[in-house]
Write a structure and sequence with these properties.
Immunoglobulin-like, about 55% helix, three-stranded antiparallel beta sheet
């Protein structure tokens, strides 16, 4: 009986040892699995945080991408909304797994490729715009230079034209004033005069245009008043309308031409007279003569 009891106890001890070994093994397996699970979860959390950080950086990059091209700006807005949507899904995701991580990484990679494409386009446009700006500046410089040359040429042409006008001007020389009686004979005293004759020579000038000319005379008497038969007898000098004492049409042919112009009117007295001769809208000569 005692021998049987010892065998039984020995059997229980063996079973207990085996169960203890099995329990220890199961415990080790459990803690190993729990540790692996915790490690996997931490890895997923790190990968999630990395995705969120990369996406935040990309969204900031989208915000600084600016261009004057309306089409590109519209497409950038669409991609920015896609990034916003992906960011919202990342923040709201609760069932993380390796498959989810790969899916989000793929979407993020697609956005990155698209953004790089727009960066290249914008860089190309900026380079082109800078080139166009430089060309525009160059064109403006050339246009300014051409304008300056044109202005200079115009000034030179005007100066030359002015010289030509001055060079082609017909002058009057040897201007005299004579008192005439009724018989058109010269008299020595103004009191005997019935009219006045102004004599002068139109000088030869090959640059002048030949043909008929109207010569005007203005005679100012000793009292400072203009001798004139009518206030309607006017002509234009440098844009100003003046009354003339007498006028005459002459045929000028680029050679010296002696001219006499007569004034018929009242108010002939002794004293100093001022005589001015006008042709082609300019004063071409003057003189002061004393009548006794």
């Amino acid at each position: 009986m005692e021998e049987q009891t010892e065998k039984t106890l020995k059997g229980y001890k063996i079973i207990i040892v085996i169960l203890a070994i099995v329990l220890a093994a199961l415990t080790s397996i459990y803690f190993l699995q729990v540790g692996n699970f915790r490690d996997a979860r931490e890895i997923l959390e790190v990968q999630r945080d990395t995705l969120v950080s990369r996406l935040s950086t990309m969204m900031a990059d989208f915000d600084v991408l600016k261009t004057e091209n309306d089409t590109i700006n519209a497409n950038l807005d669409i991609e920015r909304h896609r990034a916003d949507s992906l960011f919202t899904r990342l923040k709201q995701e609760r069932n993380w797994s390796a498959a989810k991580i790969r899916q989000y990484e793929k979407e993020l990679g697609t956005l990155r490729v698209v953004m790089k494409g727009y960066i290249r386009q914008i860089d190309s446009l900026n380079t082109l715009n800078q080139s166009l700006v430089q060309e525009n500046i160059q064109y403006r410089k050339e246009a300014s230079t051409l304008l300056l040359r044109a202005q200079t040429a115009e000034e030179q042409a005007e100066e030359l034209s002015s010289k030509v006008r001055r060079g082609s001007m017909i002058l009057a020389r040897n201007i005299t004033l004579k008192a005439l009686n009724k018989s058109d004979r010269e008299v020595t005293r103004a009191s005997r005069a019935e009219r006045l004759r102004t004599d002068f020579v139109l000088t030869a000038n090959e640059l002048a245009t030949p043909g008929n000319r109207e010569v005007y005379i203005r005679i100012v008497g000793p009292d400072g008043y203009l001798l004139a038969n009518s206030t309607n007898h006017v002509f234009e000098v440098d844009g100003e309308r003046l009354t003339y004492s007498a006028s005459r049409t002459v045929d000028y042919q680029n050679q010296d031409l002696s001219v006499s112009v007569y004034y018929n009117g009242q108010g002939i007295v002794k004293g100093k007279y001022s005589v001015s001769v006008y042709l082609d809208g300019r004063q071409i000569g003057s003189n002061e003569i004393i009548l006794k």
